[in-house]
Every structure is written in C-alpha cells, then in structure tokens.
Amino acid sequence: LSGPPVVDLERRIATIAAGTKLAAIGEPLWDAGFSLRNQGDVDVQSIAGLIATGVHGTGRELRSISDSVVDATIVTADGSVVVAADEPDVLEAARLNLGALGVVTDVTLALEPAYHLHERHWRAPVPEIMAELDALVAATRHFEFFWYPVDDMAYAKALHPHVGPPDPLDDRPGEYVDRSYRVFPSLRNDKHTEMEYSVPAAAGPECFGRIRQLMQRDFADVVWPAEYRTVASDSGWISPARDRPTVTISVHQGVDQPHEPFFRAAEAVFADYDGRPHWGKRHYLSAATLADLHGDGWQRFWQVQQRLDPTGRFVNQHLAALRPR
C-alpha cells in the first residue's frame, strides 16, 4: 500500500497510500507545488502510522499531522469499506486512530504551497535558553531544543520560512536553507526507546526544570537528551494537545539500557502537570487515568471504535487494557 501521492491541485489536497513513507512524498508534492504544513524531525514512518499515533513537529501555531487529515479509507473487520469523510465522527476518530478502527488503506491530507525553510542551530547553556525561551519560540515558526545531561548544554534549532531558494549568503556556519521537506528531518541512527508527555504550555518550563533536576539527581547514568517542543491547541478527541496550547517534553534511553525506573519517575513528574502521553511512545497509564485526561473525547473515540470493530479484531493486548468494557 504505497506509491506516489495523488494531488488535487484545485482543492490543495493529496491522497496517499497508507504504507507510503513520509520521506517518499516530499519531492512529488514539491513537484506539484505543495508541501506539508509541518513535519517532525523523523521521516521514516508510514503515513498511516503517523496519523494513528498523532505524530507532530514543533511550532506554537502548528498542530499535529493528524489535524491535516481531511479523509481516509478504512476496511473494517467484516470487509466493509468506510470513507471517513462521509461520517464526521468517523473522520474525527480516524485522524488519530491507534490502528484500532480497521485497515487504513489511504489518507488524504491538506497541503500548503511549497516553501523553503531557513535552519539555524546553536549550542547554549540551559539557563540562557530558558531565560530567552518565550522570545525564541515567538521569533520563528518552529523552535525546539535538546538538553544533553552529559555537558548540561542545550542544542537549539529554529526553522523559519524563507522567501525563494537558497543563495550563497544563506550558507553560514550553523545555518542553511533548503526545501522544507529536506530541512525538517534529522538522522536518528542510534536505536532508542522514548517517553513523551504533553503538558500545558504555561507549565512547560517548570516541568522541564523538574525533569532536568530528576535526571541530574537520580539518573546520572542516562546520557540521552530530553527534548522540548511546542504544539498548538487542537480539537482531536484523544489528541495530547486537545483544548490547550502545549509543550511536549521527551525523554530517551538506549534500547540496550534499562529504561523503566527512569521513565516511571519521569511520568510521575509529568502527572503533576496533567501530562498526556504520546500514543507512539511509552507510558504506564491505566484506562481510568487516560479517560480522566481526555474527558469526553475518550468515550467518543471508543464508541466509534466499537461500532466499526465490535469484535475487537483490531484491538491488540495493549489496547484491550485501555478499551472501555
């Protein structure tokens, strides 16, 4: 289930086979005159996987990729073909679906006119970054930083739309310009596992400070960084950014290293800020806790899921523990 996107020039949308990798669509969309509104810094996932787990990038005015979904085709357990846009509740559930509705065969995304991005990256002490954080977030369309406990430094990255293609003046140390789909992704060659929580934006700096303190005090052997990003409020039923401007904070550990004690301790910090977990990363929450965190959206999502998949064919062991009885 992969292939080039089918672009509707007039409606500014593209229908993409569900197994197509994000890395494969940037160039054909560009050739048609379009780009995605936002991406994360990894582009090896499938389109269906991206929306199933609510993958996002960074930017205080930018929502997750799921928010760009305007349609999807789903084959349910009994072989029925469902066009999500025909039923508003199905479309809402399909935008972030946990793989639990059926087999998604294609996804239709809203597009933007093609644009270049200017990237600037630099290294600075954490107190300096935190003191300027509001200004840094406001200054560009995309801002994020990684904090590395090994040297206690922040590695910041800011991306902003650039008028026209690059010129020699753009090629400065720590800066460059290229097509958006080339600038967004970064190489992630070291295998790791990850936990990410979304907290209210106003609480982001304090929550990050506590995660930094936790790692320095109790988990000094963890050498992997913590990541800080922003996401705009949205209306997705089980979206981590539902109804609130959001900061996402991620912690990591190598796949060959123990992660659970560290992640559980970090999760306890996130819980103090009503943190909601990223659906594609680790968490240890119960169905009851998730229901509280997501409010009426939790029940609404599962009502659609149970209507499309009443026998639970698409509910794996993990989701079975979360699905309302």
Task: Write structural notes for this entry.
- It is a single chain.
- Helix content is 28%, strand content 27%.
- It is α+β, with helices and mostly antiparallel strands and 325 residues long.
- The strands form 3 sheets. An 8-stranded antiparallel beta sheet has the order 11-8-10-9-13-14-12-15.
- A hairpin with a 4-residue loop joins β9 and β10 (153-162).
- α3 crosses α10 and α9 (287-294) crosses α10 (296-308).
- The longest helix is centred in the middle third of the chain and has 15 residues, at 204-218.
- The mean pLDDT is 96.
Features:
single chain; 325 residues; alpha+beta; eight-stranded antiparallel β-sheet; five-stranded antiparallel β-sheet; 15 strands; 28% helix; 27% strand; globular
Percent of residues in beta strands: 25-35%
Number of strands: 15
**N-to-C order of helices and strands:** EEHEHEEHEEEHHEEEHEHEEHEHHH
End-to-end gap: 33 Å
Rg over CA atoms: 20 Å
Short description:
By secondary structure, this protein is an alpha+beta fold. It has helices at residues 26-31, 47-53, 88-95, 126-131, 133-139, 180-183, 204-218, 260-271, 287-294, 296-308, 317-320; strands at residues 6-8, 13-17, 34-35, 69-75, 81-83, 103-110, 112-113, 116-125, 142-148, 153-162, 175-179, 192-200, 226-231, 246-254, 276-277.
